[in-house]
Amino acid sequence: MTAILKSQHNQFKDNDWDQLNYEFFQNFESRHTRKCYQRDIQLFFSFLDNHKIYLNNLKSILRSHVVAYRNHLQAIEQAPKTICRKLSSLSSYFDFLLEKNIVEINPCYGLRRPRQVVVNETQDLSDDNVQKLFEALFNEENSKSIKLHRAVIFLLFSTGIRKSELINLKFKDYVQINESTFCLKVKAKGGKYLTKVIHPSAKAILDDYLQDQIDQGELTSGEEYLLRPSRNPLNPKQLNKPLNPKTIDYILGKYCQKAGIYQKVSPHSARATYIGSALENGVDLWRVSLDVGHESVRTTEIYNKRRAGVKNSPVHSLGFFNNYKKTA
Question: What is the value of pTM for the model shown?
Fold first, then answer.
């Protein structure tokens, strides 16, 4: 606990302070979100400590302290989007403290934040490269984990769901809507639920993997994780656990290398590829935005890199060239 928090802590009983923090952080349904908020808020107080800014209590924090923190983040060249997220976390925390009458103002109010330009854009794959990736999956020897690896990659690229959403899927989330349509019920960012239709090719890959699990008696109640590790060194008999996020990174990186794809690719690249391919092939922007669970079509538009290419230049549509005849 930092010095500033220790000072404020002295004004409360231990259980009162713990209850306040519990109320704020546990209000976020996602464990990942809670961790991000805790880290972002702690970084601010660590900044105060590291720069020897010692204050009597939380009421002593001014906008100038938050401005100094923002300038520090810019000085160490943090991405504008990252800075905005950290300031947003801090502002939410002070709003909560304001509501509890622990502070008198939110020092983040009126703070100018950097424009949220993307410094390092997520690299999406061309349709040709995705086909090469799929081919690499089937050129692999029939190892113990190959069916799992195929299911991971096919689901990422054919649904556009996030890595965290993929690893938290349960067997019961795989449902049949009608005679020919199968879907995944996905708990998405912000507590939303999405119904993702599964492409027949991806369904065949997933069914092949799941049939092995059923044959081994691993899927019985529906509460089991849909994709699970093939081994657990710490507890070999306990395989009903979500895949480690680093495992997803490893699987994708391994087969990209086998496919001769050497650009920087992450699981989020599969989401960008899903969106980019759909838009390039004529799917309406609003439909894609709704499908992937974006709050705004503006967010979806950020992924629309393919249409921004040379082939989509408006130069050939300029009206003043319609009747122009070359005279020289």
Answer: 0.70
For tokens 């990659």, what's the residue?
Answer: 153
Q: Which domains does the chain have, with CATH numbers?
A: 3-99 (no CATH), 127-308 (1.10.443.10)
Mean pLDDT, residues 170-191 taken together: 90
Q: What is the pLDDT of residues 234-250, one digit of tens each?
A: 776 777 888 999 999 99
pLDDT at 312: 61
